[in-house]
What does this fold into?
Amino acid sequence: MQITQTSVLRLERDHASAQFFDATAREVLLLKRCSDCRRWSAPEVVNCPQCGSASLQWRESEGVGVVASWAVIRPKPGTGTPLPVCIVELSEGPWLRGQLRIEDLASIHTGMKVRTQFDAADDGESIPVFVPLT
It folds into this structure.
């Protein structure tokens, strides 16, 4: 099945996510990194899941990883196009959820290498989505 267009989920910033969305507007993916134990964490983390420290700093991610899991959200017939979504294990370690931009749904597989790309909703923030790494 070929997909020609998918919608971008609309997200809004708050105080805790402002730096993340400032970076996505520049097409940069930020993760949090613990200043104490150096573990990488997902953007929404408040305390380090390894040592419990609240000393987390925003750091730039390479933006590449592998698909750990995926699904295709299928709308009612005649109401839209299928929306592939995935969970990606980034090279730094954290897992992120997001949309998967891919033409051929049959080619999606666990372990597929992907990179981050950025899309913006008409009235929202730029968000990371994932595309196959070529």
The chain has one domain: 15-132.
